């Protein structure tokens, strides 16, 4: 005889039981107070959130404490100089930059830039003895290099917005010069507002689209609106929490983008989990109070474990010593907290108040709700499980093929090509890349405290012979190809010790600047040196990120494994989930390499491939995607585990759990995937990568992984799934199929 699982009649439902069930009844009884407090919290959080946005930092990609960081500090302290923060590209309206009128205007402009507020140094082709590295090959362009001391917020938010219009606008008259702004700081300054525009534009599409999709799934307007409001609630709470974090650390402005991208998705997911369970409990004949309590007890537990896995996945970013990446950990954890508050505390009070408007219409209830046996997903699971070897092999082979481009991954560094072609700073950099033989603004700097003049000469000669080095400037003169080519600006390199400027060729910088830095560091110096400059900063940053990647992976896999073990009391299930999630991530990275590294679909998506991927964004996506994959794994496993505890039959538990959970997972995954896919139209390539990569990961995870591989592998493992706990908590016996004797 089957185990009797009929729910108690409504009059027997009571407030006892597990803590979450008691919490559910408490939220029902105090629903007016809860809703009043929730509204007050929202208003207060809104005030804090409004103050948080201006406080976000324009953090740089940098590695604090690295060799390049120490070299930069030495340059400033001992020589009063450093790497240029920006450049002005000066173009002669007629003739060349060597014409007397153009030269006079160029010198005057250089002096004018140097006198501008916030500028510490200004030099140009005309003031540095006309080196070839600051003049284009056709003679039409020359460069002014500018150093602006201070942190990124000071440079990008205070100095550049004032300096760029003043210099470029003032030279647009009838004079002999045309001036454009460029350089790394200007590129980044233009990236931030474009990224914000991308996210705002995407959100304007996502909100109505999400409402339509939710209505199609729920068939009730209120049931479609409430999850969206939960997502907004999660965003506001998250931004308010970030305002508190800002009191003791910097948070990148790009963290706001993560809050917007994840807030709505997680808010909808968590809310759907609770609403779906509320519908099921109501369908079983429970009154509204008991249905809410049951939803909090079961779906609330799932949501809490899910939030813990997502937060844990993002928390591993704290293992990286970079404020830029740590910002996303703060933002992601804050979003999870906001989503949990909305789904586990506020939503039950809403259901207690207007729960009737969230239920299916009468006609749908009469046909049977999600609890009915059979159905598409139940049938799929029962069909897949007998053919588990063939289905599992086919699905695995498909995913491995999709993931195979990942084997060709090449890490590189981002440049101006993350911006659209019409961005002014990118246009400036394109001219420099195509017209100048070398990149003096991105020179590698070698700093020494104890260098002697003779040693400097020999060292500069050796460095100038390296492939990819256009020129080496030092206190001993300028060198190219192993030969002294001029006196250079020797006074610039004199001070307490000595320093050298290794100017890379345009080809070397475009090909692989990190490789050039490594070549420079392999040249044996006659004295102790520190290697700095923009290419070295990129090299140190990339090396620091890649070197810590194994630690990040180990922490992420270990922590989420522990969370799943605590939920299932099984070792096999977390191990299986980890392997499947790694496979899902492989598909995501395969798509990133195939599209953004190799350039496929670049015409359709409107970006310019560089042949490499910057490691920062993929690592962020790794943590986010892994957490979201575990989100659906937790929900599906909770339904399967609940059914197994009830029946002790693994095969039936998988089929029934899939029937109950898969429609919701598919709907939530589809909405979340479309949410991310909306960013595929972004102007900034980083935002595009985030949207496309996450959409691919979510779609693969919510379909092939959960619908085919999960039931296949669980059927293959059989009773071993639940090792070492073994026994289902609600059924006596240890066999896979349990027959309960009649009472």
Automatic annotation (TrEMBL):
Entry protein name: MMPL family transporter
Pfam families linked to this entry: MMPL (PF03176)
Record-annotated SSD domain positions: 221-353
UniProt-annotated location(s): Cell membrane
Source organism: Nonomuraea antimicrobica
Main location as per UniProt: membrane
Similarity comment: Belongs to the resistance-nodulation-cell division (RND) (TC 2.A.6) family. MmpL subfamily.
Entry membrane topology: Multi-pass membrane protein
Record keywords, A-Z: Cell membrane, Membrane, Transmembrane, Transmembrane helix
Keyword Transmembrane: yes
Keyword Transcription assigned: no
InterPro entries named among the record's database cross-references: MMPL_dom (IPR004869), Mycobact_MmpL (IPR050545), SSD (IPR000731)
Annotated transmembrane regions: 199-217, 224-248, 254-275, 303-322, 328-359, 380-403, 549-567, 579-597, 617-640, 661-680, 686-709
């Amino acid at each position: 005889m089957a185990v009797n699982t009929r729910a108690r009649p409504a009059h027997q439902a009571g407030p006892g039981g597990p803590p979450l069930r008691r919490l559910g009844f408490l939220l029902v009884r105090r629903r007016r107070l809860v809703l009043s407090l929730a509204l007050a919290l929202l208003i207060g959080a809104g005030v804090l959130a409004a103050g948080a946005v201006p406080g976000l930092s324009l953090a740089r990609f940098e590695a604090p404490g690295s060799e390049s960081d120490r070299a930069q500090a030495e340059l400033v302290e001992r020589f009063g100089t450093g790497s240029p923060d920006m450049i002005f590209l000066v173009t002669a309206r007629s003739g060349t930059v060597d014409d007397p009128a153009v030269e006079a205007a160029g010198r005057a402009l250089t002096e004018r830039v140097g006198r501008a507020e916030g500028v510490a140094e200004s030099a140009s082709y005309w003031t540095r003895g006309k080196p070839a590295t600051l003049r284009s090959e056709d003679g039409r362009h020359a460069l002014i290099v500018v150093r602006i001391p201070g942190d990124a917020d000071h440079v990008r938010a205070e100095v550049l917005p004032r300096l760029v219009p003043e210099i470029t606008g003032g030279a647009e008259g009838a004079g002999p010069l045309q001036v454009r702004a460029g350089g790394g700081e200007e590129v980044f300054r233009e990236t931030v507002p474009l990224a914000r525009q991308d996210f705002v534009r995407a959100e304007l599409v996502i909100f109505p689209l999400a409402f339509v999709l939710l209505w199609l799934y729920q068939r009730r307007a209120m049931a479609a609106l409430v999850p969206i409001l939960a997502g907004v609630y999660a965003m506001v709470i998250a931004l308010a929490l970030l305002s508190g974090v800002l009191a003791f650390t910097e948070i990148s402005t790009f963290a706001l983008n993560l809050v917007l991208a994840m807030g709505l998705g997680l808010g909808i997911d968590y809310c759907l989990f609770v609403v779906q369970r509320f519908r099921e409990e109501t369908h079983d004949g429970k009154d509204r109070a008991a249905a809410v309590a049951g939803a909090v007890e079961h779906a609330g537990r799932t949501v809490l474990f899910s939030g813990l896995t997502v937060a844990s996945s993002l928390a591993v970013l704290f293992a990286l010593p970079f404020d830029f990446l740590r910002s996303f950990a703060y933002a992601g954890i804050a979003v999870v907290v906001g989503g949990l508050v909305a789904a586990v505390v506020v939503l039950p009070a809403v259901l207690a108040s207007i729960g009737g408007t969230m239920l299916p219409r009468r006609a749908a209830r009469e046909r049977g709700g999600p609890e009915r046996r059979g159905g598409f997903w139940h049938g799929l699971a029962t069909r897949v499980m007998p053919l588990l070897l063939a289905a599992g092999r086919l699905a695995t082979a498909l995913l491995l093929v999709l993931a195979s481009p990942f084997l060709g991954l090449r890490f590189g560094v981002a440049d101006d090509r993350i911006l659209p072609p019409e961005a002014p700073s990118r246009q400036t950099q394109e001219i420099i890349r195509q017209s100048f033989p070398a990149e003096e603004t991105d020179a590698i700097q070698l700093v020494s405290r104890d260098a002697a003049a003779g040693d400097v000469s020999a060292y500069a000669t050796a460095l100038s012979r390296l492939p990819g080095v256009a020129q080496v400037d030092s206190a001993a003169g300028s060198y190219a190809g192993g030969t002294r080519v001029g006196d250079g600006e020797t006074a610039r390199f004199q001070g307490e010790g000595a320093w050298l400027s290794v100017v890379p060729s345009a080809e070397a910088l475009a090909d692989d600047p990190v490789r050039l830095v490594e070549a420079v560091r392999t040249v044996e110096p006659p004295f102790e040196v520190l290697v700095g400059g923009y290419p070295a900063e990129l090299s140190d940053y990339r090396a620091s990120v890649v070197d810590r990647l194994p630690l990040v992976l180990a922490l992420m896999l270990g922590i989420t494994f522990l969370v799943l073990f605590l939920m299932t009391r099984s070792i096999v299930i977390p191990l299986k989930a980890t392997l499947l999630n790694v496979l899902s991530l492989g598909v995501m990275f395969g798509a990133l390499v195939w599209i953004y590294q190799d350039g496929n679909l670049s015409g359709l998506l409107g970006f310019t491939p560089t042949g490499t991927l910057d490691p920062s964004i993929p690592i962020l996506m790794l943590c986010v995607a892994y957490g979201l994959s575990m989100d659906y794994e937790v929900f599906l496993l909770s339904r399967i585990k609940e059914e197994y505890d009830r029946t002790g039959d693994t095969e039936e538990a998988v089929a029934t759990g899939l029937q109950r959970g898969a429609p919701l997972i598919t709907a939530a995954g589809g909405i979340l995937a479309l949410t991310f896919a909306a960013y595929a139209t972004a102007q900034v390539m980083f935002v595009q990568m985030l949207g496309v990569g996450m959409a691919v990961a979510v779609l693969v995870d919510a379909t092939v992984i959960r619908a085919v591989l999960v039931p296949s592998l669980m059927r293959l493992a059989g009773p071993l799934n639940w090792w070492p706990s073994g026994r289902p908590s609600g059924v006596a016996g240890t066999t896979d199929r349990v027959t309960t004797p009649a009472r």
